[in-house]
Write a structure and sequence with these properties.
Layout: H1 2-19, H2 21-34, H3 42-57, H4 61-64, E1 75-79, E2 82-85, H5 88-94, H6 97-119, H7 123-140, H8 147-156, H9 158-163, H10 167-209, H11 211-217
Antiparallel strand pairs: 1-2
Length: 222
């Protein structure tokens, strides 16, 4: 059974790679033949360091656990030579102590889900754990606990630093997906004894935590 699962998974990976070879191969060719040109580009000299610094600033455990990212430090032009925070409503909302507590409680439940599913030896849990660790590595950038390896890759591979200026945009969805599944596993523990209590508390908590989204701020009006 496990062998068949592995073979089916391998087929999916190979088919996915095959479908995407039309853009993967040209990029690989450029990296091999002219990868050094990336570090000489104008966008590299003007923007890469700033972009990476912003990702590093939000690459901490406390920010990653609530998915706070560089866009919280991003500005947009509002006219008359003025700039304003892109996510001002979300910044104000997340600075409320109760909202932060709810966010970290959700993450704590997901962490319990990791332990619970691993204890149950769930095969999907171990598969998702690899995705979670892989994506978290890139979200941490050069911050602990894996920052030394990220820094080594930056220094060793010329294109690595340029390609991952905004690692959040490339790996956050994988991280969120894995955390969401583990959150469900964590809830499973409490749902057996406190199902009614969970409904009463959890749904309002979700709405309050994401309140700006229900007020038309899921996508910035600009």
């Amino acid at each position: 059974k496990n062998q068949q699962i592995f073979l089916n998974s391998l087929k999916i990976v190979l088919v996915t790679l095959g479908i995407n070879l039309f853009w993967i191969l040209p990029n690989l060719y450029f990296i091999i033949a002219s990868g050094n040109l990336v570090s000489e580009s104008k966008i590299h000299s003007l923007f890469t360091q700033e972009a990476f610094a912003q990702n590093k600033h939000f690459g901490t455990i406390q920010d990653i656990l609530i998915f706070r990212n560089f866009l919280f430090d991003w500005s947009q032009y509002t006219g008359d030579g003025k700039f304003a925070p892109l996510l001002n409503d979300w910044i104000i909302h997340l600075n409320k102590p109760l909202v932060l507590i709810i966010g970290y409680v959700f993450s704590f439940i997901a962490l319990i889900g990791i332990i619970y599913s691993a204890y149950k030896k769930n095969v999907w849990s171990f598969s998702l754990l690899g995705i979670l660790i892989f994506s978290a590595f890139f979200l941490f950038t050069t911050n602990p606990p894996s920052g030394f390896l990220f820094a080594f890759l930056q220094d060793t591979l010329p294109f690595f630093k340029e390609a991952l200026r905004f690692s959040f945009t490339k790996f956050s969805i994988l991280f969120m997906f894995a955390m969401s599944v583990y959150f469900a596993w964590g809830l499973k523990i409490f749902a057996r004894r406190f199902s009614f209590f969970l409904v009463i508390i959890l749904i309002p908590s979700f709405i309050y935590y994401a309140l700006p989204a229900f007020e038309g701020k899921l996508i910035d009006p600009a």
